[in-house]
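Exam review. A common question shows you a sequence with its structure tokens and asks you to describe the fold in words. Practice with the pair below. Do the first one on your own.
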Amino acid sequence: MKVIVLYRPNSEHARLVERFLHDLRHQHDVNQSSIQMLDIDSREGISLASIYDIVDSPAIVVTDNAGGYVQSWIGSELPLMRDVAAYSML
């Protein structure tokens, strides 16, 4: 499984997202390499947002290893850390 975080690094939600990911890594022993952080306005971010029909940020998208959609959370209401951690450890 892959966890992809799409957000705007220079937005009002950036600190919330970065703190969430920092705490996720430390509280749930999630490996840094299992989470990919992308600027939603970058070329790759725009492409992934289009593929997974993401129209708002921040967004957390879980895919299988082949890129197939599994789960997503969109908007400033972030999911529970344990839910994201469960996907990142598979």
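Now try the second one, then compare your answer with the model answer below.
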Amino acid sequence: MYKGIYIALSGAVLKQRHLDIFAQNVANASTPGYKKERISFKDYIIPVDNKPPLVEDGRTMSETSRVITDFSGGTLLRTGNPLDLAINGEGFFALEGGRFTRNGNFRIDSAGYLATQDNFKVLGSGGPISVQGNKIDVNAAGEVFVDDVSVGALRIVDFTEKEKLQKVNGGAFVTDEAGREITSAVSQGYLEASNVETMREIVQMLTSLREFESYQKMIQSFDEASSKVTNEMGK
């Protein structure tokens, strides 16, 4: 009976994790370049006490295996802001500190460098890009011009094993893998929207909530049955 509680509890914990992930995706639906997450889970067999671990005599439990990031592209949205940049295709903007991002909602920092909203400088082929001037233009090849003078080219990097990328604050990623520089078209005055389908996430969140409530009722039923058996045996 206690195994029944543990099995139901494993399902409830998994569904709670699902709810957290769906809520996080919905909360970031309007964040430029945000990549939605999914949970990969695994089942395993726990054997019946004092018996060989045969599948037919066991009980299946579930647990979270890992959180997977969906790197599919989002729609490009026109903003008209010359500091907003979007990558058409694969790759990430390289930032100082070993960070990489698809969020091209950039600004000019206090030192005159192109930077993210949380103050990480955007890297070019020769280091941080200084954009002090009146007019900033970025062509499709990622070359940056200030007052019609080239000041460098955006460094765009891609990775063979994207699953090794770890999400950090600000929608950026870090990894131990050495990325490779690639050529991707850059659109100035555009931002890549998140790849979150809000209504789909909400439906899945509600489904997970109902399943979580079902597991709660199962745990309660097992607990009541266990209490009843204990009381009967006591009599």
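Model answer, second protein: The two ends are 20 Å apart (CA to CA). The first strand starts at residue 37 and ends at 46. Full marks require stating both points clearly.
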